[in-house]
Amino acid sequence: MSQSxxxxxERVQTWPPQDLEExxxxxxxxxxxxxxxxxxxxxxxxxTRDGPAGRERGEWTDEQxxxxxxxxxxxx
Length: 76
Fold this sequence. Notes:
By secondary structure, the protein is an all-alpha fold. It has helices at residues 3-12, 17-35, 42-56, 63-72. The longest helix has 19 residues, at 17-35. It is elongated, with a radius of gyration of 16 Å.
């Protein structure tokens, strides 16, 4: 691991929870680009489970939001 990466990881330990979540989101995206596999965040996983029920209720997500989701997943 590089010295700069080591230093930032030491500082990360003092970050507030919302910043740590943002870091985790970005790390998942980087990992997906490297491996071709995107691990869903818990809220993304819940949304994929709730999607079919929402469709049945007539609730739809607009195309732009879905496109952004698939880009984050590394599909597009």
